[in-house]
Amino acid sequence: MRVQLRMNYEINRQLQRDNGLSLADYHVLNALSNAPDHKMQLTDLAALIGWELSRLSHHLRRLGDRGLTKRIQSEDDGRATDAVLTKKGMNAIAKAAPGHAALVRKLFFEPLPDELVPSFTAALEHIQASLNLNASLPPVPL
User: How many domains does the chain have?
Assistant: First the structure.
């Protein structure tokens, strides 16, 4: 827990200082930047980033007010809403990603000895699979 809280603090601080983005902003923008056509149904996006739908909805409103995302009616399901990454949002995540990756590498991966990486990765994959099966949030979409 201490590692997670400290990492979140440091990453959030760096993102805000260098890019005017919060870690929460980064989670949403990053997920959308990796989605096909830079859009996802809200329920899938919420599951992917581990948020409740109401939290995501409020955050998307704030991102939309800044021109980073928009909402549209889903083409796949007319009853659903999609979040879409705007060009401004794509530019923001593209600008933020290198500094973010460098900080994560420095704080998290560089201190980890190379021989521990495979077993650490396997352990995290098992934990993720268990969370998908046993947690209260819907499974992460494939």
Answer: 2
Helices (H), the chain: 2-19, 23-34, 42-49, 53-65, 87-104, 117-134
Q: Collapse the DSSP code of 69 into the 3-class scheme (helix H, G, I; strand E, B; otherwise coil) and give the result.
A: strand
Q: Give residue 33's pLDDT band: very low, low, confident or very high (50, 70, 90).
A: very high
Please report the pLDDT score of residue 139 as a whole number: 73
Cβ(139)–Cβ(47) below 8 Å: yes
SS3 (DSSP) at 41: strand
Neighbours of 97 (CB within 10 A): 15
> Do residue 48 and residue 76 come from a single domain?
yes
**Domain that includes residue 131, residue range:** 114-142
